[in-house]
Amino acid sequence: MDYLNYGQHRKLLKDNHIIIKNFIKEKDAKSLGKELVNYPDKEEDSLCRASGIHNPVWGLEILTDQCYNLSKIVGDNLLPTYCYARDYRNNSILPMHKDRPSCEISLTIHLDGDSSWPIWIKNPEGDGISVDLQSGDAMIYLGCIAPHWRENYTGNQYSQLFLHYVRSRGENWEHYFDIPTYHKVLEMELEKKMSLK
Asked: Are the C-beta atoms of residues 94 and 84 closer than 8 Å to each other?
């Protein structure tokens, strides 16, 4: 775990992001990227012109395995919420946005791709910062606070794994394991069934 540099939370707060080189080994990242590309039942995301998998088991393993180390890096106890693996293709785009409460502390991990594709994030002063990750590198970012985006992708394939956490004693703590979203979906389904009667 050569990437561990505890106490980077000051830089995270100052810049809204920090980079962790070799968060996972390059060969492991590329292998996971290939597994994602070949996964048969990905969900289509028409907004981003991409496809993805919500909570793939290999992503959940990384999400839970790294929770302690990431807590040390950001200087706060974290609880996992969910992960998402996305496979982008030519003309994919990630519109500028902020994340929902379940994504208080997030990581984007570059798995594999055939072309460079920087992610942009605004620092607290509102300046856009371009971050170009290599396979296995990760960016920790404050997705609920900092707008982030990607321009139009000109390559053919680019894969990412997103890991999302909340602070255990922060304002979004109740979103651990993405529970409120799940309960809200169940409530909506129940309301829909009741309205059909």
From this structure: no
Least confident interval from 61-70, 110-119, 176-185: 176-185
User: Which segments within 66-118 are labelled E, that is strand?
Assistant: 78-89, 94-97, 105-113
User: 58 and 32 in contact (C-beta within 8 Å)?
Assistant: yes
pLDDT per residue as tens digits for the range 141-170: 999 999 999 999 999 999 999 999 999 998
Upper half-sphere CA count for residue 105 (Cβ side, 13 Å): 28
Domains of the chain from N-terminus onward: 9-196 (2.60.120.620)
Alpha-carbon gap, residue 170 to 166, rounded angstroms = 7
Residue 148 has a CB neighbour count (10 Å cut-off) of 25
